[in-house]
């Protein structure tokens, strides 16, 4: 008998392996590995995949909350709620205003500035009559930008009674900007 065979344990040809009795099995090949295809939802046809890529690219270029609007509509929506101010009208429109004034310094080529446009437009609507929202294109009005030390955009200045009260640099969340504005109303 072989060293792992126990002739009297359980009958003919039983083998003891690690304390248990097992019948020897004939040499069988391992079961074939089955490769299952991915679900059809994960493998869209080529046309759907291309449309999906285009849709994702378009969503990256537009603000998340208004992603269904065409870009032209976003610009018009912003212009209705927020006015432009230039060097010639700065003193009259910003410093001479009786209500609080939020001034956004921006440029057309600035992506974070474009993300801030709908947030500022929402603030202009929410605080209508108590807050005036304006914007300054830093490419066209460099003198105003340099007078207030604007070195990066977007930069938001909040004025009250003709004096600068707060400076916010960079794109921030709408709730944070609203909390900043609330302190001066």
Automatic annotation (TrEMBL):
Residues 69-185 form the Thioredoxin domain. GO terms for molecular function: protein-disulfide reductase activity. Pfam families: Thioredoxin. GO terms for cellular component: cytoplasm. It comes from the Eukaryota. PROSITE patterns: THIOREDOXIN_1, THIOREDOXIN_2. InterPro entries: Thioredoxin, Thioredoxin-like_sf, Thioredoxin_CS, Thioredoxin_domain. The keyword Transport applies. Residues 1-30 are annotated as: Disordered. Keywords: Disulfide bond, Electron transport, Redox-active center, Transit peptide, Transport. The keyword Ubl conjugation does not apply. PANTHER family: GEO12009P1 (PTHR45663), THIOREDOXIN DOMAIN-CONTAINING PROTEIN (PTHR45663:SF39). This is Thioredoxin domain-containing protein.
